[in-house]
Each structure stands twice: as C-alpha cells, then as structure tokens.
Backbone:
C-alpha cells in the first residue's frame, strides 16, 4: 500500500486491507515499532483477526 502520509488514518486503512487478506480462522501478527501512528491510544481500529505486537522502547 502506498499512501501520501503516515498517520493514524492511513494506518487504519492499512489494517483494514490486511484484515481482508487473512485466511478464515487465522490471525495475523503485525510487529510495530514506536511510530506515533502505530500506537493504539484508542484511535486505531484493529480487527479481531489482527494482533499488534509492539517492540519494546
């Protein structure tokens, strides 16, 4: 996915697209660094078939 910006809105679009590509009954684990748009803080919409694994700071 190519986006014009790196922000929470674009991360949510990215997560939504990844969610459509996960096989039924499977879970995708995404490794995230400390970027501001990788932080949940109530703004990220993470589907039930995705788990975010945050790297330690």
Residues:
């Amino acid at each position: 996915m190519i986006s014009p910006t790196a922000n929470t809105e674009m991360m949510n679009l990215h997560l939504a697209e990844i969610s459509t590509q996960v096989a039924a009954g499977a879970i995708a684990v995404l490794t995230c660094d400390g970027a501001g748009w990788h932080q949940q803080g109530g703004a990220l919409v993470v589907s039930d078939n995705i788990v975010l694994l945050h790297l330690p700071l």
Remarks:
- The helical segments are 8-20.
- Residues 23 and 51 are 14 Å apart (CA to CA).
- The longest helix spans residues 8-20.
- The mean pLDDT is 89.
